[in-house]
Write a structure and sequence with these properties.
Blueprint: E1 5-6, H1 13-24, H2 27-34, E2 38-41, E3 44-48, H3 56-71, E4 77-80, H4 87-95, E5 98-101, E6 119-122, H5 129-138, E7 141-144, H6 148-162, E8 166-170, H7 176-184, E9 193-196, H8 199-211, H9 215-221, E10 239-243, H10 249-267, H11 272-275, E11 276-278, H12 284-296, E12 303-307, H13 313-324, E13 329-332, E14 338-339, E15 344-347, E16 356-359, E17 367-372, H14 378-391, H15 395-403
Parallel strand pairs: 1-7, 3-17, 4-5, 4-6, 6-7, 8-9, 8-10, 10-11, 12-13, 12-17
Antiparallel strand pairs: 2-3, 14-15, 15-16
Helix pairs in contact: 1-3, 6-7, 8-10, 12-13
Length: about 400
């Protein structure tokens, strides 16, 4: 790799610290932290999950984008897709003069306008091997912000492919991270992958492993979610389990166990090591945020608000986790979804792809849990809490609290 490729930062954190703080800091969030993640505002009690918002990988990616702008003030900066799945962060980068590269009609990123004079930033999710090689061939400066947790998954699936194991990836086949992960197995001749979205799909594959069946029907069911030339009879003899880092940990572990049992039934307990491998590749930050939500749900809560991009996988899984515990949950993209004057909230229900609006959503709720996905900045969390307090007519009480700090 030559000197036009950068992955370890530019050592400019001090130079960008003031701007980054101004863009994402929240005094209200800091107040909650100082008060053991609990804040009483009149009759309302807000409980903030102890792990929420920006994780290390997101922090690093955002810092690196800011540093890149500082390092190359006179160069054209391009970003492959979105740096992370948060509209406000991406909009802020646009305001800094960073241009976004989008998919063309063929589904591939359009690099036709990229020149050797340009600086191209790769997102926290990583890019596919094909996109990486295309960019390298153009001779542009490449700034790689791929998260270390994602790189860890890549190493696992590379190992599977090297040892002739098919990588079965628990994830969303259309997600940038899963696409990049799946591409890693293609470094090796005969590399194979299959993407399963949930336990239902995993069981369908496991049934085939144990009992056989209609391979053609299975191939059609997983069209676009496996490596070229995938043969369900040949390529499920040896499997290794991996996952998109932001999936629900419990489901990933359950899917791995389902495959282990099926391979054991098919080949016998004594041959399991020859046919099955698994590693827990959920990132620690995703796990910590999920654990913090579960801990918070042990308390009596009337409602839970999850803040973050609707296309953020880890955020949608936090909302799903709350719902499985029987607590009313609203997944909102940001504070603008809370209309204090009208008493409404716009949210995306778990498992759906469109917003709905609810009137009188706060009702008699008094204990309100709040968390945010790993790509949500603190200021958007603070703004949401403020909007909820204002909805309850507590603007003055909130102002007194903030003024007292």
């Amino acid at each position: 790799m030559n000197s036009t490729y950068y992955r370890k930062g530019f050592g400019l954190k001090g130079a960008i610290e003031e701007q980054r703080g101004a863009d994402y800091h929240s005094g209200l969030v800091e107040l909650l932290r100082a008060r053991e993640y609990t804040l009483g505002v009149g009759p309302l009690t807000f409980r903030l999950a102890r792990e929420f918002g920006f994780c290390y990988g997101v922090d690093r990616a955002v810092d690196y984008a800011y540093e890149t702008r500082h390092k190359f003030p006179d160069r054209r900066l391009l970003l492959v897709g979105e740096i992370i799945h948060n509209p406000h962060v991406n909009r802020k980068l646009e305001q800094m003069g960073i241009e976004f590269l989008h998919h063309g009609e063929d589904g591939e990123f359009d690099f036709s306008g990229v020149t050797p004079d340009d600086v191209v930033i790769m997102p926290a999710f990583g890019v596919t091997i094909g996109d990486f090689e295309r960019l390298r061939s153009l001779g542009c400066v490449m700034v790689d912000t791929t998260c270390g947790s994602v790189l860890n998954v890549w190493k696992r699936v590379e190992g599977y492919a090297r040892d002739a194991f098919t990588a079965v990836i628990h994830g969303k086949h259309y997600h940038e991270e899963t696409k990049a992960t799946a591409s890693q197995v293609m470094k090796y001749p005969g590399g194979r992958y299959l993407v399963v979205f949930n336990m239902e799909e995993a069981r369908g594959v496991c049934d085939y492993i144990e009992q056989g069946g209609d391979a053609g029907a299975l191939s059609r069911r997983f069209e676009g979610r496996h490596s070229p030339g995938f043969d369900f009879t040949r390529d499920l003899e040896r499997v290794g389990i991996a996952n998109q880092t932001t999936m629900l940990s419990g489901e990933s572990l359950a899917i791995a166990e389902e495959f282990r049992r099926s391979m054991e039934r098919r080949h016998g307990p004594g041959a399991i090591a020859e046919h099955f491998r698994t590693f827990d590749t959920i990132c620690s930050a995703t796990q910590e945020r999920q654990d913090a939500v579960v801990a918070l749900l042990r308390e009596p809560l009337d409602v839970m608000v999850v803040v973050g991009g609707y296309n953020s996988s880890n955020t949608t899984h936090l909302a799903a986790l709350v719902e499985t515990h029987g607590v009313l949950v609203y997944h909102i993209e940001d504070a603008s979804c809370v209309d204090a004057a009208a008493g409404t909230i716009r949210h995306q229900p778990v498992g759906q792809k469109q917003e709905v609006e609810v009137t009188g959503w706060l009702g008699a709720a008094r204990r309100i849990g709040v968390t945010a996905g790993a790509s949500t900045p603190n200021n958007k969390v603070g703004e949401t809490i403020a909007r909820i307090a204002i909805t309850a007519g507590l603007e003055r009480e909130l102002g007194v609290l903030l003024d007292s700090e």
